[in-house]
Amino acid sequence: MRLVTFTQAGATRVGLLDGEEIVDLRAAAPGLPTEMCAFLEAGDAALDAARNALAAGGSRLPLGDAHLESPVLRPGKILAVGLNYRDHVEEAGQEVPKLPMIFNKQGTSAHPPYDPFHLPRASHVLDYEGELAFVVGKRCRHVPADRASEVIAGYTVCNDVSVRDWQLRVPTWTMGKSFDTHCPLGPAIVTPDELGDPHALDLRTWVNGEPRQSSNTKNLIFDCFALVEHLTTAFTLEPGDVVVTGTPGGVGIAMKPPKLLVAGDVVRIAIDGLGEIENSVIEEPEATVRIG
After folding, report:
1. How many angstroms separate the CA atoms of 259 and 265, rounded?
2. Do residues 159 and 177 both lie within one domain?
3. CB-side exposure of 29: number of CA atoms within 13 Å?
4. Are residues 165 and 238 in the same domain?
5. Chain center to CA of 93
6. What's the rounded Cα separation, in Å, for the pair 126 and 220?
7. N or C terminus: fewer CB in 10 A for the chain?
8. How many domains, in total, are found in the chain?
9. What confidence tens digit (pLDDT) does each residue in 161-214 have?
């Protein structure tokens, strides 16, 4: 299945993406939660009800009549991994890490798969990072790698948008990775039974149609299951948490000369079996200034 969060007729809710249509679970299975974290929290019974709704074929609307949101509107955690492809380690001039390099992106950075993201007023040193992400489906702690697949609800595409000067001016990267709009996700959470092996997927990134990144998730240094084991050694993962697994080589800051993003650029990221996201870059609007 392909789980989505969408807005239509002023209401935001969970559905299933099926080609160019959305199965509206609010209509097809009225007893299900309409928010993704609550839906995942409801467990296998909710997933089975959604599968039945998909098989029944009713309560559909055209994809063009809806707005796709970030699959998880406000993740409790967005945990990301630095330097997790060898070619990216090399272009960054770093050593291959012995353990996963974990940092946070704030939940408010989660962003729809096709909406513009901001060139912030605080910096114009803006970069893209095409990445595989996975969404946690079960509350879990101390999960061994060989059971990690049991706690993953599904996989999605991410752009780990990065404000490089803010990222690198201090040892911790959270500020430079967490600007609002800087975690486009989607278009859907693809469940493991539909996707198959998450570690054999081609990943590609284009900027204005120019190829920038091309790799395969088999090249992850620490794969999705190893990351679950590592993270749950320290803390509980909860339904709706998002783990962003790292980017391959080809980021803009490492090019000679650097090719950073400017307003008007369009970034497209595609991963086999998951689809693609595409976001334009816009100047941060004045409307983001708010108190209260």
Report:
1. 11
2. yes
3. 23
4. yes
5. 26
6. 24
7. C
8. 2
9. 999 999 999 999 999 999 999 999 999 999 999 999 999 999 999 999 999 999
Q: pLDDT band at 276, cuts 50/70/90?
A: very high
The pLDDT tens digits for 128-150 are 999 999 999 999 999 999 999 99
Verify that 100 and 153 share a domain, yes or no. Answer: yes
Does the residue 73 lie in any domain? Answer: no
Range of the domain at 82: 78-288
Cβ contacts of residue 289 below 8 Å, gap of 6+?
Answer: none
Would you say residue 156 lies in a domain? Answer: yes
Q: Are residues 93 and 8 in the same domain?
A: no
Residues 127 and 252: beta-carbon distance below 8 Å: yes
Return the CATH number at 6. 2.30.30.230
Say what the pLDDT of residue 58 is.
78
Whether the pTM exceeds 0.90: the reply is yes
Give the tens place of pLDDT for each residue, 70-108. Answer: 999 999 999 999 999 999 999 999 999 999 999 999 999
